[in-house]
Write a structure and sequence with these properties.
The complex is a heterodimer of chains A (258) and B (226).
Chain A: H1 3-31, H2 37-62, H3 72-89, H4 99-120, H5 123-146, H6 152-174, H7 177-205, H8 208-223, H9 227-257
Chain B: H1 4-18, H2 24-54, H3 58-85, H4 90-115, H5 120-150, H6 156-176, H7 182-212, H8 222-225
Helix pairs in contact in B: 1-2, 2-3, 2-4, 3-4, 3-5, 3-6, 4-5, 5-6, 5-7, 6-7
The chains are: A mainly alpha (258), B mainly alpha (226).
Amino acid sequence: MSSLILLNFILTGLQIFVLSVIVVRLVAPMIRAKTAFLPFFLFLAMVSYLLSDLYWIVYDTLKPGTRMPIAANEIAECSVILLLSAGLNTMLRDKAVRMGEVLFAALFIGANIALWIVWSGEWLQDIVFGIPYVYFVWVLIRGLRTRGSMTPHEIKSAFVACISFVVLHVVLILVGGFAHLFIESVCFGLMFAVMAWLGLKSYQEKDIFVASTFLLWTNLVMFSSYGYSYQAAYLANTIALLLLPMSMKKEIAADALC
Amino acid sequence: MLYAENILICIAVPLAVTMLFTKGNARRMVASFLAGMLACIISAYIAGAIEALSGFGPEDTSIFLSPMIEESMKLLTILFCIYMFESSGDKTDLFAVGIGAGFATFENCCFILSSGAPQLTNVLIRGAAVGVMHIVTLVAVAKGIRFLKRYNIFSFAGIAGVFSLSVTVHGLYNLLVSKPGISSYIGYVMPMACAILLYMFTSGRNRDNERSSTKPSNGGILWQKK
């Protein structure tokens, strides 16, 4: 077993452990009817995530080295995105549909789907399971802007980072040799810098929209990485999952004060 | 060769007649049981057609396609019941149990008629694992839908999210039992464990609701109070 596969198994095991703890700890606030709404959505989303990890690990153990014709664990990931979107959508103060936001969400995720198709060749799967991300991104943008979770300057920076992410990946497909290596370093530097910034901001602010944005970004980085950088993004993804219930607690506490 | 539609007619006709002499919840239960059996045969036809068209083997169909098709059919049936009869609360649960039981019963009937029932162990596994699985996933979906309706977030994203969760549970079960050995034992235990957990959770919630006896607030939705 190579060190990378071993690391992958360890990190998946860690994520399963973290998710199990989160799921168990969400049961108590969920049973208490007064604070049931947000914990319920988070509970379902975390159970989906847990099932996705379990499915992956069972599949890899029972059928090693074979590719899934339809990635059933992606259905669970799709479930996470849909449930989080549905939950966050109810928390929006202003649900006005701004064309610019919808267009950005569609174009950004559309470009990502195109990249996933280039990398994996699973066009139907990538399109079907990519569509919920458009809604998720729109909900996040709306929430970040209307709740003041991010300053306009930070939102602009995130917008530039998203565009750069797509452009750099497109250029990576087109160029080879030294240019490829150089652009790859820049691209990975950007992805991980944004990830670190979002992680830090989520930890400081404990805002559910920022934490969800962090989770989304770690997912996008995971989908576009390989080797050790994938494992690093996976670890960040586990941290993002931990930050979600922490943000939920703050949200519930803020409500209880009113 | 198994004539599934003939088996359906044989089981459905007496049940349909009982509906003439029953009322209220008893009639609802019988109707949803019949709907579950119908959903089962339709999903079998769809799975067969997709298997032939896609070129998937029987194992791949069982692991990857069946969970999606079967859960979709069950979801469509329960959504039909919810919209058609404007059911809410306990009635939704009743429809879910009826559809799930009908689905599982018809599937078990077809399985026993095609493979025979000489070994009690196999029949027990069939009943306690797959049979329970169909009921558990649908009851979980129904509970999810009830919750979404309760908080006025009966949206497409919410329903699709709950549905995807049930597909994953079903898919994981089919994957676990696809290979003999320890994984299959875990798979056989999984539906019953899920049923117990679901029962514990719902009874815990009911107890808590009775204790508080006040109408639950939106809890955590500060923005809706303003």
